[in-house]
Each structure stands twice: as C-alpha cells, then as structure tokens.
Amino acid sequence: MRPAYRTSFDVLTHALTQCHADRISAALVLVGDPGGVIHFRDGAVIAAHSPGAPGVATLRAVAEDPLGAAIADAAFAIAVGGVAHFVVDDTADVLPPVVDGVPVRRLLGQVAVRLAVLAASPCPVSPYRERLVATGREPAGEFREIVDHATGRRTARDIAFAIGRGVHPVTVDVARMLGEDVLAIVPASAFGGRVHLTSATLRPRAPEP
Fold it and tell me: What's the domain range around 62?
C-alpha cells in the first residue's frame, strides 16, 4: 500500500530516506510541479537540480559552499511545490563525487528550516504562482534589486533566476516586502494559462474564482 502523504515535504522525506537506506548510486526523479532530480552516490546526495531553483552555475558566489547551497535550494524548490510521484533511475550517469556528499538527514533538516522560515513570514507566498509588482514605496537598500525586477510579470522564482540568488532567500525577502507593502501581488485574473501548485506547508489562500 502506498503511504499517505500530507505535503510534498513528506514525499521528499520518504524518498530520500529510502534512497539513503538502500545506499543507491542513481538519480531520484521527483515528478511534479516543478519537480526535480536528486543524484546519489552510496546513499549520500551529491547533486540536486530543479526547474524551480537556479543551479550552482547561475548562483552568485555568496555562500562558503555554493554547491551545498544550490543542493539545499533545489530540494526546497521541490518540497515547496507539488510532487505527484517519484522513481529511481539507475540508468542515469552517476556524477563525480563531491567530497563525501551531503547526508540525507542534514539536507532534510535544511529544507525543513527553509519551509518553516517561509511559513512564518509576514505574507507567505508561492515562489511559482504569484506575480509581483512594485508599489512605489521605497525598499531597504538590500531589496532594491528584487524590486527592480518586480515588473508584474515575474514570480519570486523568476526573479531568483534573473538576479542569481537562491529561490528560498528571494521568496522570503518577497514575503517580507509584501507585508511591508513594498510589493503587491498582481491579480490572477490579469493572466491566463497555467497555475502552479503550492505546498500545504504554506499558509492556505482563498480559492480563486
């Protein structure tokens, strides 16, 4: 019987824990919106990629361990979205080892902290769904770059890619600026097309008409 999952983080926890227990050297493919791929060597995480987060090549060098920061950011991007199912692809090329890899327990702890920080923000927001626009109120200096990219057509994820920062810190900064009325959410009725899923970890929003 398939276990019951409450959130995408539950799915990620189950999948990573099982891959660690089996000491796999393969790719864990998490199918969802945005989903992603996590690479293992001997049960340790050596890389992670998601369409929801900039990769290590895009991120500006602001962390002592840019690869570790990119892995944690990609795992957060997977957990904060929607995960439909996952599979282990043992035909994928195993990437070169990165030191000893990232222990699964540590990675899950990093993701849990990131989700909790976002959920505790003044105005929790999906990195993928809400498009953002500046209100004209002057932001603090460190937020100017985000505000300059809030054109009304970009989400927090889009802005993260544009400025080369992790999707988690950008989304948290966006949530803070929404609470301070520096940014506003563009009404969904202004756009058609696809709507991204959001994790149940975030504060629920009223259904859109």
Answer: 8-119
Q: Which residue has the tokens 């030191």?
A: 99
Tens of pLDDT, residues 188-208: 765 544 433 333 334 333 444
Q: What Cα–Cα distance (Å) separates residue 171 from each residue in 44, 47, 79? A: 28, 22, 14
- CA–CA separation, 60 vs 64, rounded Å? 11
Give the pLDDT confidence of 80-130 residue by residue, as tens digits.
Answer: 999 999 999 988 766 665 567 899 999 999 999 999 999 999 899 999 999
Determine, yes or no, domain membership for 153.
Answer: no
Question: Rounded to whole angstroms, how far apart are CA atoms 108 and 113?
Answer: 9
Residue of 171, 176, 159 whose CA lies nearest to 198: 171
- Please count the CA atoms within 13 angstroms of the CA of 72 that sit on its side-chain side: 23
Contact (CB, 8 A) for 125 and 131: no
Residue found by looking up tokens 């004209």 in the block:
136
The 27-33 sheet, strands edge to edge: 44-49, 36-41, 27-33, 82-89
Dmax of the chain from CA atoms? 54
Closest-CA residue to 73 (of 172, 171, 196, 167): 167
Residue 158 identity (one-letter amino acid): D
Q: Classify residue 208: in a domain, yes or no.
A: no
Compute the distance between CA of residue 206 and CA of residue 167 in angstroms, rounded to an integer.
Answer: 24
In this structure, is residue 83 part of a structural domain?
A: yes
How many domains does the chain divide into?
A: 1
Q: Specify if 137 maps to a domain.
A: no
